[in-house]
Amino acid sequence: MRTIDIIAKKRDGEALAAEEIAWLIAGYTRGEIPDYQMAAWAMAVVLRGMDVRETADLTLAMARSGTMLDLHAHAPLTVDKHSTGGVGDKTTLLLAPLVAAIGLPVAKMSGRGLGFSGGTIDKLESIPGFRTDLALAAFCRAVREVGLVIAAQTADLAPADKRLYALRDVTATVESIPLIAASIMSKKLAAGTDCIVLDVKYGSGAFVRTPEQARLLAQTMVGIGQHAGRRVAAVISSMEQPLGSAIGNALEVREALAALQGHGPADLRELCLVLGTRLLLLAGKTNDATVARQMLEQALADGTAWQKFRQMVANQGGDLAALDDPQRLPQAPVVMPLRAPRSGYITAIDTQVAGLVVNELGGGRKHKDDTIDPAVGLVPAARLGDAVEAGTLLLEIHAAGEADAARVAPRLLAAYTLEDQPTPPPPLILEVLE
Ligand code: URA
Questions:
Q1: Is the pTM higher than 0.85?
Q2: C-alpha torsion angle, residues 147, 118, 181, 23 (rounded to 10)
Q3: For a tag site, which of 22, 133, 184, 249 has the least CB within 10 Å?
């Protein structure tokens, strides 16, 4: 087989055979196929798509590119959650300790930022000392002893996705349902968790724009998971505006810490309760959704979720003093307010722009090996549907310098649509798929 023939076949819109996909992924994993050919192939997939069978074959090839974990020696049942990516999405930081506090071991391998969306690993690394690069033995020990671990994908877990993910991030090849589905599900299958809840986001700050595309992505992933014998549910949620009131690594950690102590934003809390309810049901903790939600609310209210988070941070080397005093988390030297230019109702927010701006401020990567600035970001103050006056604070820009903040301000301002008549904001949760 030749890589160029496989690229050309996909470029011309043909379906690839299972053997071709397996050969391509194995060759890329071994480093025999260069990034430039893989990038051309990924772009062909973005433009031409893949059918369900090809997507399933791609998922399995990527999952089998490394170790297929079996965690049953460490916990009888483990759970995991995955988001398709959004802006301000710090759900994992709240949801994982929340369900772990109820006694469901969470074994989570997370990613770094991708395109305009942030990544849980980048966020957690803004806690001084927090280690995300755990060896497999340490990961398993944390599952056994803490019942909660969030770590970077180990090098031997779905290594094909690790390489392809970083490549897609910098080659404009993220927005593709088959590539996203295979990327997410290959990691989930290889990580060996029994129950998986998927947070599939649609809207101006998601990789898929419409509820229909989100439904297709959700169905594809649920189908792949169930075919592989896992218990999977998906929640379709809106990303027509940033989640919560913080975008950027340390800012999001700060917001998650507040939420864990009962002071977080309502949308973040609600999404976590809905996702957590699905996990409790999948894991058989109860078969009553109302009871499941009450259990989660209780774990938040009585501080057990907060204690579980602290336990995880301590176990992974993080500085507990930074949790107790979030002022010790990285802070940007410049905070610039962005104000509404006129009065009106906020009827749309180009959320992707907000994510891209955070990247540009230094909170994300332009090149695979860039280091990021954990302190920078945005703190939105106004939400869809809000009525604002000229001069009302829309958001704060947290930047490394005045010039950076001033440079991005016009783009952020243009991301807000203000109209004379209000439009009702979309519901946070569109539907649940099982
Ligand atoms: N999250 C992933 O893990 N992969 C994608 O491709 C998109 C979001």
A1: yes
A2: -100
A3: 133
CA distance 163 to 60: 16
Active site residues: 82, 161, 168, 183, 187
Separation between Cα atoms, residue 301 and residue 298, nearest integer Å: 5
* Residues forming beta bridges with residue 393, ordered by sequence position: 339
**What pLDDT, in 10s, does the model give residues 320-354?**
999 999 999 999 999 999 999 999 999 999 999 99
Cβ atoms 99, 296 nearer than 8 A? yes
Would you state the pLDDT for residue 365? Answer: 83
State which amino acid sits at residue 214: A
Q: Which two tokens stand for residue 408?
A: 């991005």
Cα(297) to centroid of ligand 1, in Å?
29
Residue nearest to atom 6 of ligand 1 (CA): 180
Pocket of ligand 1, candidates 202, 207, 224: which has the most ligand atoms within 8 Å of its Cβ, to mutate? 207
> Measured in angstroms, how far is the CA atom of residue 183 from the centroid of ligand 1?
5
What is the tens place of the pLDDT at every residue in 395-430? 999 999 999 999 999 999 999 999 999 999 999 999
pLDDT of residue 229: 87
Ligand 1 atom showing the smallest separation from residue 174 Cα: 6
Cβ 40 vs Cβ 7: under 8 Å: yes
- Map out the domains of the chain with their CATH numbers: 3-49 (1.20.970.10), 79-324 (3.40.1030.10), 331-419 (3.90.1170.30)
Task: Give the position, in ligand 1's atom list, of the atom nearest the Cα of 84.
Answer: 8
**pLDDT category of residue 369 using cuts at 50, 70 and 90:** confident
Round to the nearest angstrom and report the end-to-end CA distance of the chain. Answer: 39
Residue 262 φ/ψ region, left for φ over 0, alpha for ψ in the -120 to 50 degree band, beta for the rest? left
**pLDDT, position 76:** 96
